[in-house]
């Protein structure tokens, strides 16, 4: 036995016909080149490699982890979805030769035959100005991630769309010969909502007031910017947020939904009145 032992130790434990003098750093078994796995120090045999992998903590791919985080409770899914839809719409605007832009843009004179453009205009932006969409989407990214977890996904979506609609109604009432495209009305609605909620919770809103004032002033002095949409969105967003604040609590969901619906009905009524006064 003692004479055969050195010979067996010079043979690969998995391939006895192969001679080798390399030992596994973990278990000490002889391994041939086909069975060797480079380790930080020396080599490991297949069994030790498998054992090490089994004991190692399992990690998910980064993409899978990111997707699961997006779907987690409290994640601003609506905010990211609105940004995604807007970016897709902008890409279609660029490659459609103006067709998609014309399809989504709100023009008060066409309110009767294309009333949906009062909302779809929120997802269209000026193809000739990259700053236009970048500023709006950056603002949506910042304020959406704050507001959406605070008020909930569906309330946030209602706030955004009603603010955009409010901006279009203001354009119809104050500038019926013009038109509007862009999410600025909805963004100003988020500004107004954040101001109302922050004040309602006792926060300091001084810096936000300055931000709103500066952006409103830009709309008055810089050409090709619809200040009417900014004002309309700001008013509607503030009103919707005030409803949310005054009807907080699970027992007041029905009044909250009712008053929010009243805002929508009021905007529709203003649309009918404004269109009749301007074009009928």
Description:
The protein folds into 2 domains: 5-55; 77-279, Rhomboid-like (Rhomboid-like fold, Up-down Bundle), CATH 1.20.1540.10. Strand 1 (37-38) and strand 2 (43-44) form a beta hairpin. 31% of the residues are buried. It has a two-stranded antiparallel ribbon with strand order 1-2. The chain contains 12 helices and 2 strands; from the N terminus they run H-E-E-H-H-H-H-H-H-H-H-H-H-H. The protein is 64% helix and 1% strand. It is mostly helical. Residues 1-5 and 63-67 have low confidence and may be disordered. It has helices at residues 5-9, 46-55, 62-71, 77-95, 99-104, 117-120, 130-151, 153-174, 184-200, 206-221, 227-246, 253-279, and strands at 37-38, 43-44.
SSE topology:
Layout: H1 5-9, E1 37-38, E2 43-44, H2 46-55, H3 62-71, H4 77-95, H5 99-104, H6 117-120, H7 130-151, H8 153-174, H9 184-200, H10 206-221, H11 227-246, H12 253-279
Antiparallel strand pairs: 1-2
Helix pairs in contact: 4-7, 7-8, 7-9, 8-9, 8-11, 8-12, 9-11, 10-11, 11-12
Q: What descriptors fit this protein?
A:
280 residues; mainly alpha; Rhomboid-like fold; 2 domains; disordered N terminus
> What is the H level of CATH, i.e. the homologous superfamily of the largest domain?
Rhomboid-like
User: What's the average pLDDT?
Assistant: 87
Largest sheet: 2 strands, antiparallel
Order of helices and strands: HEEHHHHHHHHHHH
User: What is the strand content?
Assistant: under 5%
* Stretches with pLDDT under 50, minimum 5 residues: 1-5, 63-67
- CATH topology title of the largest domain: Rhomboid-like fold
